[in-house]
Amino acid sequence: MKFEKLSEPIMKISKKLSFTKKIGEPPGSLTYTGESGKRSLKLELIQYSHDNLEIQVFNDLKPLSEKIRKDYVNWIHTNNLSDTTIIESIGNLFNIHTLTLEDILDTDHLPKIEQTDNYLFLTLKLIGLAENNAPTENHVSLVLGNNILLSFADSDEDIFNILKFRLESQKNKARTKNADYLFYLILDLLVDRYYIAFDKIYSDLENIENLLIEDFSLNRIRAIHNIKKKLSFLRKSLIPLEKSVILILKDEYDLIEDQNEIYFRDVWDHLIQLIQMHDSCREFVSSLLELNGTNLSNSMNQTMKILTVITTIFIPLTFIAGVYGMNFHHMPELSWKYGYFYVLLLMVIIVIFMMIVMKKKGFFK
Fold first, then answer.
1. How far apart, in whole angstroms, are the C-alpha atoms of residue 154 and residue 81?
2. Strands 120-129 and 135-145
3. What CA–CA distances, in Å, run from 142 to 149, 286, 299, 304, 316?
4. Distance of CA 317 to the CA centre of its chain
5. Residue 201 contacts residue 245 (beta carbons within 8 Å)
6. Which residue stretches of the chain are H helix?
7. Which residues make Cβ contacts (< 8 Å) with residue 293, sequence separation at least 6?
8. Which domains occur in the chain, in start order?
9. Which residues of the chain have pLDDT under 50?
10. Which residues are within 8 A (CB) of 291 and not within 5 positions of it... i.e. 6 or more apart?
11. Given this model, what pLDDT does residue 21 score?
């Protein structure tokens, strides 16, 4: 059975069980916490300078290491985190600390940034949309060195295809800059993916609002609650990422040139906008919950109103039927030939009279 086909409760349990893979292991243990599956290893080397761009794909680290050039920006992308051996080999080749490698393999790790003596490490989430328009996330890690940028993604998707296409143009600003600018471009690309998710969520909220206004008899609490969970899901990754970018702006990281800090400030502005969009959506959800509750109250009031009308009409009819249902011998109307029809006619007249009165009182509006 595929993981996507599991019921929602089982999916939640499976997600929680991924944390247990690391319990009891010493710090720096290289344990992949994501979903195990068949995925072929692909090491992609993108090298560029102002005059040249080369893209090569390898299945082994050794031939790739021989192609690295110091006069080029070297971007190495790895798509398979489940192969801990290759991750360890990359760490040995570029002198990456085992604690950093542990964070790279921890697919549940929240976004964070940290610097060592020879590299800058950032881990964050790639946001996407599933077939049911639910937001998804993939673990992405970036390691910035001198003219070296390593990217690790727990996905077979070519998530940087647009960026590679832009690098093919010699007019692109990145072709004249160092690896820290490429670091910014990747970060900016991943942050922009949040806009897609929020646009879809806001569209869903507007649709629910229209449904609540058009038909107040149905309870939309499940749909509203699902969107609330989506917002919590996005906030979990968005807030730590915003704090990480603030650290880039506040701390003087040696690997990021001062002239490029303005670009990271632009990313921070985008994150602030996204947080504001999240807060707006949360307020929208709160208003929809109030509207849904009001609709349910109105629906209940309408039901009670109908029952009240029916009860009001039948009270005098019940009284008449009760009076003539008594078993006394000396009741003159019981021996009347047309008494039965008289009582029925009286009941009809009473019903018509009460309907007219209630209509004038506005009971049927």
1. 6
2. antiparallel
3. 7, 37, 54, 62, 81
4. 59
5. no
6. 8-17, 61-65, 84-94, 98-105, 161-167, 179-214, 221-250, 261-323, 339-360
7. none
8. 3-294 (3.30.460.20), 300-360 (1.20.58.340)
9. 1-17
10. 209, 212, 213
11. 59
